[in-house]
């Protein structure tokens, strides 16, 4: 077996409490699109566009190239190189026809240690695979929604030829050059007893594979079973509830219209700038972001109505990211 059974997130992590405040973000989440061809039952897209607008003030858009080019130019102004630029977020990145060009620009600009995408891979044809690989993509993270065409229809309302889908992933893996292929599936998308089938299927066509546990990520979406009432992350690690969200201390999220938020959630808890009106360097060093960080460290996160319904601190944060015990010390550093 070539593949490892490990979470598909970044595993080489700095202890965040020792590094804050950062003079440069570790990560930029750039959203090439907020369109998606799936309506997965545990995702906000299952609500439909009208309800997403009402619930999240969310609009489906593609990022224009001039906005993306602003991001690439501005990212060079940070004192340190980014650890990662992830071209993903609240949509299917392959629905933006400029995605390969975006990857190529980021690689040529040398602004990050790695460039990655997170995709459902339903649009991953052989031609697209070749273009992504030739553009220099470092990591592709593939999210599965089941192990059969019938399950895909049930989970996300999408007609998928599962055998062709696997053949396309196999083609990518065999031609990937230096690109890492990570594959994951949510536990709720598997039938009872399918864990071993998943691991067997991807043992020789991925570098890393993992079954994640579904958590209540989207306010307004109905979650049942294991997602309810458990304080644990999607990797199954149970922990005490976290009062501070660490995301605003090491990342920025950029929506297709250029709006910048201090995380990568759908909620936009605060818009701290726009890359078409200001620079990422100024936004990262802005009083607006600093005030948001101070609010987090003061353990007032639930006073922000968007943060109050977000499970990110408990779902996607890692032990190395936790800031709760260091809050008083960090407040003295930041204030």
TrEMBL record:
Name of the featured protein: Molybdenum cofactor biosynthesis protein A
Highest taxon of source: Bacteria
A matching Pfam family: Radical_SAM
GO terms, molecular function: catalytic activity; iron-sulfur cluster binding; metal ion binding
Keywords noted in UniProt: 4Fe-4S, Iron, Iron-sulfur, Metal-binding, S-adenosyl-L-methionine
Cofactor(s) needed: [4Fe-4S] cluster
Iron recorded as keyword: yes
Gene3D superfamilies according to UniProt: Aldolase class I (3.20.20.70)
Domain Radical SAM core: 22-248
């Amino acid at each position: 077996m070539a593949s490892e059974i490990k979470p598909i997130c970044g595993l080489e992590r700095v202890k965040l409490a020792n590094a804050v405040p950062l003079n440069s973000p570790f990560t930029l989440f750039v959203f090439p699109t907020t369109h998606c061809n799936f309506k997965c039952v545990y995702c906000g897209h299952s609500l439909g566009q009208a309800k997403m607008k009402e619930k999240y003030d969310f609009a489906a858009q593609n990022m224009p190239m001039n906005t993306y080019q602003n991001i690439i130019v501005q990212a060079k102004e940070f004192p340190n190189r980014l650890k990662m630029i992830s071209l993903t977020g609240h949509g299917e990145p392959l629905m933006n026809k400029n995605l390969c060009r975006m990857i190529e620009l980021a690689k040529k600009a040398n602004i990050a240690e790695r460039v990655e995408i997170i995709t459902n891979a339903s649009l991953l044809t052989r031609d697209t695979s070749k273009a992504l690989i030739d553009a220099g993509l470092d990591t592709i993270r593939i999210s599965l929604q089941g192990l059969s065409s019938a399950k895909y229809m049930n989970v996300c309302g999408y007609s998928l030829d599962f055998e062709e889908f696997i053949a396309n992933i196999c083609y990518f893996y065999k031609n990937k050059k230096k690109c890492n292929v990570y594959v994951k599936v949510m536990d709720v998308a598997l039938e009872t007893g399918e864990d071993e089938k998943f691991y067997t299927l991807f043992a020789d066509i991925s570098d890393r594979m993992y079954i994640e546990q579904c958590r209540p990520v989207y306010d307004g979406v109905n979650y049942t079973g294991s997602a309810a009432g458990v304080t644990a992350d999607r990797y199954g690690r149970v922990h005490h509830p976290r009062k501070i969200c660490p995301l605003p201390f090491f990342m920025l999220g950029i929506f297709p219209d250029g709006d910048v938020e201090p995380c990568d959630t759908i909620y936009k808890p605060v818009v701290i700038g726009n890359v078409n009106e200001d620079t990422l360097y100024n936004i990262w060093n802005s009083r607006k972001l600093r005030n948001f960080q101070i609010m987090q460290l003061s353990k007032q996160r639930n006073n922000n109505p968007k943060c109050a319904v977000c499970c990110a601190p408990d779902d996607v944060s890692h032990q190395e990211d936790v800031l709760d015990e260091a809050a008083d010390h960090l407040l003295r550093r930041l204030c």
